[in-house]
Amino acid sequence: MPADGFDAVVVGSGPNGLSGALTLAAAGRRVLLVEGARRFGGGLRTEELTLPGYAHDVCASVLAIAVASPAFRDLDLKVEFAHPPIPAAHPLDDGPAVLVHRDPARTAAGLGRDGVAWLETVGAAARAGLPLVDTLLAPLGVPRAPVAAARFGASALLPATVFARTVFRTPRARALLAGMAAHSMLDLRAPISAGYGLMLASLAHLAGWPVARGGSQTFADAMVARLRELGGETVSGRWVRDLGELPPARTTLLDVTPRQFLRMAGPRLPAGYRERLTRFRYGPGVFKLDWALSGPVPWRDPAVAGAGTVHLGGTLAEITHSEAEVTAGRHPRRPYVLVVQPCAADPTRAPRGGHTLWAYCHVPNGSGVDMTEAVEAQIERYAPGFRDLVLARSARGPADLERHNPNLVGGDIGGGLASLWQFAARPVLSPRPWRTPLPGVYLCSSSTPPGAGAHGMGGREAARLALRES
Ligand SMILES: Cc1cc2nc3c(=O)[nH]c(=O)nc-3n(C[C@H](O)[C@H](O)[C@H](O)COP(=O)(O)OP(=O)(O)OC[C@H]3O[C@@H](n4cnc5c(N)ncnc54)[C@H](O)[C@@H]3O)c2cc1C
Predict the structure, then answer these.
(1) Which PANTHER family match (predicted)?
(2) Domain segments of the chain: what residues?
(3) 470 pLDDT tier (thresholds 50, 70, 90)
(4) Is 364 helix (H, G, I), strand (E, B) or coil?
């Protein structure tokens, strides 16, 4: 570890750590970035998890929220975002799959009687554009689009089940909304679950749901390169176990979750704050699968082959049941499965003719159950013959994921439960939740606002606060 001479030290190189480091370096601060893992990037790493030549995004793959984020969209990094022909598909047992196109009108046309309702809700959020995105990604800032945000908020606060049944009349539109909302990892009967679904669906229209050409790692690498251009120093393979190991600096940004911060800070933290952090709740975990395939997935509806993201799990009722089971600490027999087909946008992920496939399902936090069979059965349900294409697979449960990245506590990919309470109190209830009681020390991970996703906003907001205060 370099000894001293830094204005700021950033621990952790996920999208939030990187955006925090870039914000500080761009303001002229001498920055040291310290990463525990061998490679930089946190949730943006890409590895050959199965066979040589098959590049798999270990965590984040679809970077919709990154391309739309005010923390990243103006950086002009050397990274290419590749868009699939169709952002998302939701196959059903009967009839064609529901498709979300970039064009809201084309999407609405596929929703029949619910087309108008789609345009009036998801379409309206997309029409509100980047000012609404900026408002939602900086919920504690001055709203850029207060009217649109108030309108959005009225629906967003609802449980997804209530929103879907009130606004949509057809099973197809209701299922589509459920698949979007289930990204939140919440029970779909819980408040605010509709909001996550509406936001993600509107991003499909506004910004698309792209992947990074070559893998998400290229996005992280481009940010590390920019940081070095700005004079920042970087160290990897160095886990920080105690804050005392860090060189002295005016500012310390920690891209870690509350549980790790409690360990690193030890008795330095006042009892009251420790107590509040101890009450922070983690969400369900995920069981992640990656496959090397000998060809494209044989979807029963061939249109699904063009979709970057595919939501499996059937109807609103089925997905609601799946997510309720997970919330209750059980493993659903037919889980909701999030699938990404990177090759629909980026054929460089596999050798010629080959394909990669990425998927996860939700499981109770810390689960040790192997969900491979249940996930593959859901894919077979909509793509009979899928298993015949499998050349190799990588399966990772919560413990494996937490070994890969200690921020994934119990396999929770969101840095903490995305409940209504923890949307407001993340990780504590405060107008400046990034600030800790330790002078100059800030949390900046997805355990701070606005929460999960590769948007880098926690890092940017923490760094801006630090620039004002230290
Ligand atoms: C399986 C999976 C799929 C996902 N899919 C998507 C997706 O498609 N799109 C999307 O937008 N988001 C997705 N996410 C979520 C996204 O990856 C996270 O929300 C995002 O990476 C959080 O960024 P972060 O900077 O807060 O933390 P992280 O990206 O988790 O980075 C934290 C970094 O800190 C390092 N670190 C932790 N402790 C220490 C320590 N003590 N010393 C040194 N270094 C330390 C870690 O090694 C890590 O590099 C997914 C996550 C997972 C796990």
Answers:
(1) DEHYDROGENASE-RELATED, PHYTOENE DEHYDROGENASE
(2) 8-50+58-79+212-280+416-469
(3) confident
(4) coil
Q: Which residues 6+ apart lie within 8 Å of 192 measured at CB?
A: 156, 157, 158, 159, 184, 186, 418, 419, 420, 423
Q: Rounded to whole angstroms, how far apart are CA atoms 252 and 240? A: 12
Atom of ligand 1 nearest to the CA of 19: 25
Are residues 454 and 63 in contact, defined by beta-carbon separation less than 8 angstroms? yes
Assign domain 8-50+58-79+212-280+416-469 to its CATH architecture. Answer: 3-Layer(bba) Sandwich (3.50)
The number of the ligand 1 atom at minimal distance from the alpha carbon of 340 is 8
Please tell me the predicted confidence (pLDDT) of residue 349: 98
CA of 42 to the centre of ligand 1 (A): 4
Tell me the CA–centroid distance for residue 104 and ligand 1, in Å: 31
- Nearest C-alpha neighbor of 193 from the set 203, 181, 176, 180: 181
pLDDT digits (tens, 9 = 90+) for 34-52: 999 999 999 999 999 999 9
pLDDT at 236 over 80: yes
State CA 379 to chain mean position distance.
22
Within a 10 A sphere around the Cβ of 154, how many other Cβ atoms?
Answer: 9
| CA-based nearest residue to 186, from 319, 287, 323 | 323
